[in-house]
Amino acid sequence: MTVEDSQRVKLVAQQVAAASPPDVQADIRALMHSADKPEWLSEAGRAMNVRYGGVRALMNKDQPVEEGVDIGPPPVGNDETIVFAVGTPVFLVKNNAVDIDSAREEARAWRRILTENAANVNRAMVSIGRVDVSNADRDYAGTAWVIDDGLVVTNRHVANLFAEASGTGFRFKIGFDARREIGVNIDFLEEYGNDASDEVKIERVVWVAPESGPDVAFLKLEQKSSPVGRLKLDLAVDLPVRNLPVAAIGYPASDSRFSDQRLAEKIFGGVFTKKRLAVGNLLAADENRVTHSCSTLGGNSGSPLLDIGTGRVTGLHYSGTEFIENDAVPAAVLQRCLQRARGLLEAPSNGEIIVSSKDGNSSGGGNGTGSNGGKVTFTVPLKITVELDTAALQSSLSGGPTLSSLGSTFVVNTAGSGIDAAAVAPIAMPTKEQVFAAVRSARSQFANREDVVAIKPGYRFENGEITDQRAVVIAVNRKLELGALEARGRTKLPDYIDGVRTDITVASAQDLFGIDLDEAATASWHTNYKPRPDLPLSRRPVSGKFVIHTGPDASWPQLSPFLSKTRTSLVVAMYDFGATNVANGVLDAVKGQAETISMVLQMGGKVHDGDLTDAEAVAQIRDAKGNKFDFAPASVGKDGIFDSAYHIKVAVRDHKAMWLSSGNWQSSNQPNVAPLTNKDDEASALRLYNREWHAILENAELSKLYEAHILRDLAEAKTVTEASIVPEQLVFLPANLAMDTLEAPQKPRYFQPLTGERTIDVQPILTPDNYIDVVLPFIQSAKSRIYFQNQSFNTKTVGDNYRRLLDALLEKQKGGLDVRIIFRSFGSEDRDVISNAKDYGFDTNKIRKQKNCHTKGIIIDSEAVLMGSHNWTTAGTGFNRDASLIFYDVEIAKFYEEIFLYDWNRIGPAKIDENLPPPVLAPAGAETAPPSGYIAVPLSIALGR
Q1: How far apart are CA 144 and CA 154, in angstroms?
Q2: What is the model's pLDDT at position 344?
Q3: Average pLDDT for 637-664
Q4: Which of the residue ranges 378-387, 492-501, 921-930 has the most confident prediction, judged by mean pLDDT?
Q5: Which of 210, 303, 424, 785: disulfide with 250, CB 3.0–4.6 Å?
Q6: In 3D, which of 441, 522, 507 has the Cα closest to residue 474?
Q7: For position 515, what pLDDT does the model report?
Q8: Sign of the torsion angle spanned by Cα atoms 543, 549, 554, 555
Q9: Are the C-beta atoms of 646 and 602 separated by less than 8 Å?
Q10: pLDDT value for 733
């Protein structure tokens, strides 16, 4: 979690220390007062300070600070580091027993406690396993343990990776190859230094709790896999007491969202994905949640929380906030859920329904009508009585429509459901006003339904594609088939509201935030940026060498040599910086005493697996360069210079060469791969990493222009009050988009860079300076075609100047030009983007969505091309800091056009995937690891803002 107030970390450390047993408190005090402190403490303490010391910890200690500027809270000290490291140590498990000597030497009291209670703890080891998956985008999903005979329990967010609702129950999802189901095994061993395994196949997903319920899921082990000794773990009967010593046993993963990787390495001893035991204490407990202090990482999801004194399970771990707390589902809630799972185990595992023509058992086949008057009783195991439409049956027998044409039609009693059976006749093509009225009516009818998240105007989708029929769109937590819906005690939502067709969909992030699309509040944007007439952004001839290239084809293979040629200075403006290969490349480029580096960076962005945090990247450069590193966090936010993002991606080398891109310095944008030259990277690069457009230009005049603007940004950021780290709200979106047409099995194509040395006609662009003024006539100049490819295409939240751009693009499409649009797919958000574009007037047959699309380009008539970092949003085109270039050059335009057409033909028509699970909102202001099967995305990006 990102905790900007270091005082909170100090308070939590005090709470953890106070909750610890007396002997553990003695160990903590002893190390605090020791004159001879271990080497790991200094390193870990400094890393903690970098994370939680705010701007103060990142700036050069000799760098002057303007009077009145808030540079953040005082640093976190060694005392807090000692509490977390010694008070909550982690042990290895070997041969299904805790290895007492594997934790750090200073944790003497915990060693004694575990030695005294080894029998209680070790008895559980054989029943706790790692959830391994095959034919998925990862090898394992979390932890599970035996809660009943042949039954294991884990978290819902773990099961969501491989399970989905189907009919009256659940099924395994189609896997990574888009053909076969995901395979799931539980390996009850997976220990460090032990190559043996103890794998048991999961044959059935028994029950996954709804999103509104506890984070639990139950899985059935293969029947032949219940050897003697696979004991079910006993649940605690009494409500656990505060400060109770507990242990979380599971498989912690190497999780880069843990704010300090060096500290994570120390806590977990550099061993991940193996069975570990982490000790701590209960910080709070009630009927709905248990909070504990054990050290956990992503793979611990589903771990049992054992009472060390009794060996009973007090809770099921499901989430963690580093250095703050960890949460678990209490044993009492697990007991209630277990009763539900036991009942479902009696139902058939293949989704079949047992049909009986009578209330009792029957050995006869029968047709189900008999003396029951057309009624059939289904036992699933609850009884549901469904009445056949006997009038329709009689009609078919007397020459009316055939049974096959009627389909499986049932007369459903809607009494008490709030649905008027004598509703208004269906309206084939309702107007926008009729839809708005129906939306308001639906909101009043279903305001209290827990499974309904939002009701909004939109369009009906058929087979994943948008139609022309307007509809009342009802967003729910999860789409369920009728049987599964009834099993949860819920009625079917109506097909029509006031004559307007309804369309049920999975809720988007926009829906979860409660943004009213019917009568949305007026959005606002701001900038305190002052124009710079002394640094004019005029169109000009640019002479010199150039490298025009795309990613992931040649991203790092071109950026790496660009950086390595640095001799005097490197000036960088960046939104996100975390890729280790780029960080190492930058450090190597300026490793001499003479080179200087200047940087403006937006702090607090999310990181990918294996990446550094922004703070860690800055700290590494500070360590290496000292006062040769001139740095300031970008000034964004309410009182900042720029509205919401310092979104620029530019580097200037030695005042005479520049790199400009759509992509950040993260592993998703600058992966350490080379698919053009390394066959091992060919199959996966395009699937795993972003589509980017990059340019390298060797021209002193243009390079100095961008350098001067960046250095002015740097100087101004240092003088702005509250220029501190701005936490960005995150949303967790489904990561498993294997059914996207982008994942077509054909061999991917990669494009060689376009290189040369000549004069190019170039228009430099910066926002807030001149994007609208330059790009509007650029679009208006089109005579035959416009190819548009951008991460964002927001047609809903539109400011006046941005509207001029949208109107110009729309006018060209309506005028008969070939206007094609590609935007980035964000799963559950795609429906709104497509619907909003249609509502604005765009032809959705000319719109396609692309997974991992991160470029921001426009190609006009095969003659000119815009490339850079500008998202098509009101903020991106007018109020944030962004940089782009227009090349009025046929050769460069055709280079990017060929790539655009390759992407266009590869991804196919825009179809939404209605089977994706819903997004999950991250805790406000937090940097928490997303659930299994999800990725973290800034909310502003997901909403196209």
Answers
A1: 5
A2: 78
A3: 94
A4: 492-501
A5: 303
A6: 507
A7: 55
A8: positive
A9: yes
A10: 73
pLDDT at 928: 58
Residue type, 514: G
Whether 796 contacts 427, CB under 8 Å = no
Q: Residue 586: what residue type?
A: V
Q: What is the pLDDT of residue 871?
A: 95
Cα separation, 392 vs 400, whole angstroms? 8
Nearby residues of 760 by Cβ (< 8 Å), 6 or more positions away? 541, 542, 543, 546, 697, 887, 888, 889, 892
* Alpha carbon 83 to its chain's center: 31
CA dist., res. 899 & res. 752, Å (int): 11
The CA distance from 662 to 669, in Å, is 9
Nearest of 163, 176, 174 to residue 135 by alpha carbon = 176
Q: What is the pLDDT of residues 80-107, one digit of tens each?
A: 777 877 788 888 999 889 998 887 778 8
How far apart, in Å, are the Cα atoms of 779 and each of 305, 561, 773, 799, 819? 60, 35, 11, 18, 11
Let me know: does 246 contact 306? Beta carbons within 8 Å: yes
For the segment 687-692, the average pLDDT, to the nearest whole number, is 92
CA distance 298 to 256: 10
pLDDT reported for residue 46: 64
Query: Taking a C-beta distance cutoff of 8 angstroms, is the pair 108, 102 a contact?
Result: no
Q: What is the enclosing helix (H) or strand (E) of 19?
A: helix 6-19
Q: How far apart are CA 118 and CA 109, in angstroms?
A: 14
Helix (H) or strand (E) holding 564: helix 555-564
Rg (CA), the chain: 30
| Strands annotated E in 66-216 | 90-94, 97-98, 128-134, 140-148, 151-154, 163-166, 169-172, 183-187, 199-208
Residue 827 pLDDT: 78
Per the CB < 8 A criterion, the answer to whether 93 and 125 are in contact is: yes
Q: What's the length of the chain?
A: 945
Question: Which tokens belong to 614?
Answer: 């922004």
Contacts of 166 (CB under 8 A, 6+ apart): 351, 481, 484
The Cα 674–Cα 559 span in angstroms is: 12
25 CB-side CA count, 13 A: 12
Q: Which two tokens stand for residue 746?
A: 């054909």
- State the SS3 of 822-890: EEECCHHHHHHHHHHHHHHCCCHHHEEEECCECCEEEEECCCEEEEECCCECHHHHHCCEEEEEEECCH
> Which structure tokens are listed for 27?
């160990």
Q: Are 466 and 459 in contact (CB under 8 A)?
A: yes
Q: How far is CA 332 from CA 234, 247, 279, 329, in A?
A: 12, 18, 22, 8
pLDDT at 536 over 50: yes
pLDDT over 90 (residue 769): yes
pLDDT in tens, 725-745: 445 667 777 664 433 333 334
Describe the strand order of the beta sheet including 920-921 as a list of residue ranges.
920-921, 730-734, 934-938
DSSP 651-671: EEETTTEEEEESS-BSTTTS-
Q: What is the pLDDT of residue 417?
A: 39
| First-last CA distance in the chain | 24
Going 718 to 720 to 721 to 726, the CA torsion angle's sign is negative
Position 756 confidence tier, pLDDT thresholds 50, 70, 90: very high
* Collapsed DSSP state (helix, strand, coil) of residue 540: strand
Residue 747 is classified by DSSP as: P
Angle at 882 between CA 880 and CA 886, to 5 degrees: 140
Rounded to whole angstroms, the Cα distance separating 459 from 445 reads 20
Structure tokens at 830: 């795609």
Q: What is the pLDDT of residue 168?
A: 61
Among 30, 360, 304, 277, residue whose Cα is nearest residue 155: 304
